Amino acid sequence: MATVESHSSDSFLKILALDTSTEYCSVALFLNGEVISHEILAGQRHSELILPMVRQALGEAGLTLTQLDGIAFGVGPGSFTGLRIACGIAQGLAFGADLPVVGICTLEALAQEGGGGRIIAALDARMSQIYHAAYEKEAHGWQLIAEPALCSPEDAPLVPNGNWTGCGSGFDKYDQALRARYGGSVKRTISGLRPHARSIAQLAAPRFAMGGGIDPADAMPCYIRNKVALKEKER
Amino acid sequence: MFSHPLLVLGIETSCDETGVALYDTHRGLLSHALYSQSEMHSEYGGVVPELASRDHIRRVLPLIRQILSAAGVDLADLDAIAYTQGPGLAGALLVGASISAALGFALNIPVLGIHHLEGHLLSPLLSKPAPAFPFVALLVSGGHTQLMEVNGLGLYTLLGETVDDAAGEAFDKTAKLLGLGYPGGPALSKLADEFVHSGHSKYFELPRPMLHSGDLNFSFSGLKTAVLTLMHKHEMTPDTRGAMAFAFQEAVVDVLAEKSLAALAKTGLTQLVVAGGVGANRQLRNTLCRKAEQIGATVFFPEFEFCTDNGAMIAFAGAMRMQETSDQDKRTDVFTINARWDLEMQGLCT
């Protein structure tokens, strides 16, 4: 999650990226520096949509899986089931086509959707909580200012004073509480933004270029919320 | 049985066990592997669906690599992939379904969703000698208790089922009452078996629920209440605990055996196939064999390792299904799961 350096060699890469972490389903192809993508409001129909979208994207580009250099997916945080669909698809495609995988944090993908500058990315985590992280765009990538974390909007980690942009379903839902938390530091919010496969493709390209792809069996979701049940002795 | 050999990868992730297997229609079962999450869930007193799903996605690919290596075959040799489509835990099913669909996409081979219970029903066919159709199947596990008439692949008629708890569920719940932890079904059986051999004279009589109901349905939830009532009336010593475990197991086994025989009588069939986790219960095996012999019937059990959830039964059912499914139905990028899925209702039966 450190600064990622853009590498000129990534312009020769071909990458398939997917995201099913929200109610949207998106697929993107990074082709020698260009990105083409598709997004559908999927509700809970990701399992019906994702592979047909992959087939369509590959068909439009006239590519087969084996011609790709790698597969990227949104690891989370987000819908637990959605994260596992993207992860399972990435695992299966990469294992079958013998490709490396790169997982991209959906909060960083959200920051990428926000453009540049200083971004506070917040995703609705339900149960009155958000998934939160803060990033600053530098010449070669996003510098992590606040680690991805689960918190209530009122307790969101503070950031250095300055000119911040808030985005994501967390801001869409808790705009007032988050603005109150950050005082005047959040100068603006962009509503309706969400992690998108095109951002995942862009963020993954330099990582693949640096040899950062991993074995598909090691590709895992990143849930952040890890306490999901009480052990008997904890009740 | 098949003109061209088919190599099928089976993937089972419906509950708390990750099972994978390679079945070849000419050479039989080539390799299989199972990872049980039982220990993880025991700390929670039951299966936590979200934790089950999180574990499956860690296990599937390493297990597939393990069985490919054990069988000495490559991914490229696969002809089809079969996965458990349901019934089961939605999130857990989706892990197996998504990996299967994507792997099938990458390898350009058919991917088939298999009914979990069909896998269990057909699992005795993996053994030798194997029963031939038609037969009566007693499906008895932590999630199911059903009697089925099986006339062929996909030709299943429900004869009777539990109206409340599954038999295995009743074992686990009663074991919990008796302080045997979770899942305590096997521990309860062990306690009952030890009690019988210990020569103790203490004996409790428990009811035989629905034994004379005139149909082939079961009810097991009352038995655990009956055990609870006994526990309130008696001082709990190791002896009484053992006697209660024995009485409980005896009652469940009696009802399962009597109804299974009644199902044979009703259908006029002479082969009984037992499938599901409770099929590993020794007293059930002994009682069924003894009673079946008396009426000239034969009982078939899956190998112990294929009584519980496993990938082999899914790979096998997938191989059988490959022969029956049209080429059009075999190739789809849309993967589905059915968390609740009645074997008779989904066009699997004709």
TrEMBL record, chain A:
Keywords linked to the UniProt accession: Cytoplasm, tRNA processing
Keyword Cytoplasm: yes
TM annotation in the entry: none
Span of domain Gcp-like: 41-156
InterPro entries per UniProt: ATPase_NBD (IPR043129), Gcp-like_dom (IPR000905), T6A_TsaB (IPR022496)
Pfam families: TsaD (PF00814)
One BP term from GO: tRNA threonylcarbamoyladenosine modification
Coiled coil: none
Chief place of localization: cytoplasm
Entry annotated with the keyword Cytoplasm: yes
Cellular component GO terms, alphabetical: cytosol
Family per record: Belongs to the KAE1 / TsaD family. TsaB subfamily.
Protein name in the entry: tRNA threonylcarbamoyladenosine biosynthesis protein TsaB
Lineage of the organism: Bacteria, Pseudomonadati, Pseudomonadota, Betaproteobacteria, Nitrosomonadales
From TrEMBL, chain B:
Cofactor needs: Fe(2+)
Gene Ontology CC, one term: cytoplasm
Positions contributing to substrate binding: L139, V140, S141, G142, G143, D172, G185, N281
Entry keyword annotation includes Nucleus: no
Domain (Gcp-like): residue spans on this chain: 29-316
Enzyme category, top tier: transferase
The organism's place on the tree of life at top rank: Bacteria
UniProt cofactor note: Binds 1 Fe(2+) ion per subunit.
Pfam (any one): TsaD
Record has Ligase as a keyword: no
EC number: 2.3.1.234
Binding site for Fe cation: H116, H120, D309
GO BP terms in the entry: tRNA threonylcarbamoyladenosine modification
Subcellular location: Cytoplasm
CDD domains documented for this protein: ASKHA_NBD_TsaD_bac (cd24133)
InterPro entries: ATPase_NBD (IPR043129), Gcp-like_dom (IPR000905), KAE1/TsaD (IPR017861), TsaD (IPR022450)
Catalytic activity: L-threonylcarbamoyladenylate + adenosine(37) in tRNA = N(6)-L-threonylcarbamoyladenosine(37) in tRNA + AMP + H(+)
Keywords: Acyltransferase, Cytoplasm, Iron, Metal-binding, Transferase, tRNA processing
GO molecular function: iron ion binding; tRNA N(6)-L-threonylcarbamoyladenine synthase activity
Function: Required for the formation of a threonylcarbamoyl group on adenosine at position 37 (t(6)A37) in tRNAs that read codons beginning with adenine. Is involved in the transfer of the threonylcarbamoyl moiety of threonylcarbamoyl-AMP (TC-AMP) to the N6 group of A37, together with TsaE and TsaB. TsaD likely plays a direct catalytic role in this reaction.
NCBIfam families given in the database record: gcp_kae1, T6A_TsaD_YgjD
Family the entry assigns: Belongs to the KAE1 / TsaD family.
Protein name: tRNA N6-adenosine threonylcarbamoyltransferase
Gene transcribed to yield this protein: tsaD
